[in-house]
Structures are given as structure tokens and as C-alpha cells.
Amino acid sequence: MQKILISEADFDIEAEYAALKKTGVGAVVMFAGIVRDTAKDPQLVAMTLEHYPGMTEQEIDNIIKQAEARWPLQGVRVIHRVGRLLPAENIVFVGTASAHRAAAFESAAFIMDYLKTNAPFWKKEESKTGSVWVDARQADETALKKWQ
Amino acid sequence: MKILYFAWMREHTGCSTEEIRLPENVANISELAAYLRGRSAGHEAALRNLKTVRVAINRKYANLESPITDSDEIAFFPPVTGG
After folding, report:
1. ipTM value for the complex
2. How many CA atoms are closer than 13 Å to the CA of B37, on its beta-carbon side?
3. What's the gap in Å between the CA of B60 and the closest CA on chain A?
4. What is the DSSP string of A67-83?
């Protein structure tokens, strides 16, 4: 059971959890990525996410297939928002379901690590002083090494 | 063929997509980029440093040496920053 959704609308974590739970297995792991709050960064006004429709879904599908080849997974759900997002809004959701907790934990981390470096999304940060495209981080590339 | 640009590259070129006819002497991505640089100052700025650019042919990652044809969809974009 797999779901890939790119959407401007917010996601409902309860509904995603219910769908993952329906697989009947013993372990569900869910990750949510969130726009940081203005308490942490008072200058931040919003983030705008752009993507490459068609390629994005295909890349995420590839990542899920790789995860399914490595771990016994009964369910994978990936949702990524695009458009203008305000501080504290949800950006991304990854949920995995497996009979084994290690598989659920590790596959969720694997999917997020590959999503960050391979799925064609770009973030533009809007602050009180102007807008800048976020630079890719070397740390995200380094994170992939542990899976190779 | 269809050329797509994303993020700051799109802002430089001033267009998210453009249709061109593949010139006869252009056979791969780096030759295409060199050709596109001549289209405007914005294209030149976007495609000046290909080391920092990612490229896809028909929605699959490719590299500067990848061969291209006139029916391909080519996308140029910066390293991705989703998640």
C-alpha cells in the first residue's frame, strides 16, 4: 500500500496514521517536516516551494521502491506540499508501516534522506529583508552515505 | 524540443519553459547549454556554471555528456532543496 501526493493543501496526520494502521502490522513510523517557527527565526515570513510535476512523483516512487527492496514494508505514504507556506506549517510527511519497528524507523529515515537530495523541489525563503533561494546542504549529501 | 528551468534558473532566463529546435551540431547536454547561453543575458547567467546545475532528460537525471534528441524534454535546475 503506497501513496504519493504533491499538494498545496495541508495533510491530515490522523488520517494518514489510520491508513497506515489499516495494514494490520505492528509498527508505524511517521515523520513530519515543518516550516520553522518565527520564535526561532523572527525574520522569516514564508517559504515558497516549487517542484517539477511528473518528475517529482517519479523520483519519490523510485525512492519508495528502493526502500521496499531493503525492508519488509506493508505501507508507505509520502506527502509533500508546494506553494507558499507560513511559519509552523507542515511541509512534508513520510509514514511507513512494517511488522518490525527497525524496518519502519530505518525506511522512513532512508526515504527522507533520499527525498531531500533527489526529489526535484526547491525552497525560496521570504524574510523581512527579501527573498532568497535556499542552498542545497552538504550535510544532506553526507546523510546518504550511511545507506550506501 | 522542450526546455524547462526551475527555481533561480527560471528567474534568470525569465521563462519556465521554452520550445526550441535542436540545432544540428548539438548532440549532448553540455553542447545544448552552450547553445542556450546565447539566447539572452539571463540564459548566460543561468547556465554559466554548469557544475552547480542539475539536469534531467525526459524527467530522469542525466549528466552533461548525455546524448539528446529533438523530441526530448530537458530540464535544468539547481540542486534540490525539498523536505
Report:
1. 0.95
2. 14
3. 7
4. HHHHS--SEEEEEEE-E
| Contact A116/B at CB under 8 A | yes
User: How far are the Cα atoms of A43, B43, B67 from residue A34, in angstroms, in the given order?
Assistant: 17, 34, 39
Tell whether the model's pLDDT for residue B31 goes beyond 90: yes
Please check whether residue A116 is in contact with residue A58, taking contact to mean a CB–CB distance below 8 angstroms: no
At A80, give phi and psi (nearest 5°).
-130, 130
Query: What cell numbers appear for A25 in the block?
Result: 502490522
Name the residue of chain B whose CA is nearest to A112's CA: B83
* Distance between CA atoms of residues A27 and A25, nearest Å: 6
- Using DSSP, state whether A8 is helix, strand or coil: coil
Looking at CA atoms only, how far is residue B83 from chain A in angstroms? 5
The verdict on B6 touching A (C-beta cutoff 8 Å) is yes
Contact between A9 and A80 (Cβ < 8 Å):
no
User: How far, in Å, CA of A31 to CA of A54, rounded?
Assistant: 24
Helix (H) or strand (E) holding B44: helix B41-47
C-alpha cell at A82: 508546494
Which residue among B59, B82, B83 sits closest to A54, beta carbon to beta carbon?
B59
Residues of B in contact with A80 (CB under 8 A): 82-83
pTM here?
Answer: 0.95
Question: Per-residue pLDDT for A1 more than 90?
Answer: no
Q: Cell match 517529482: residue? A: A56
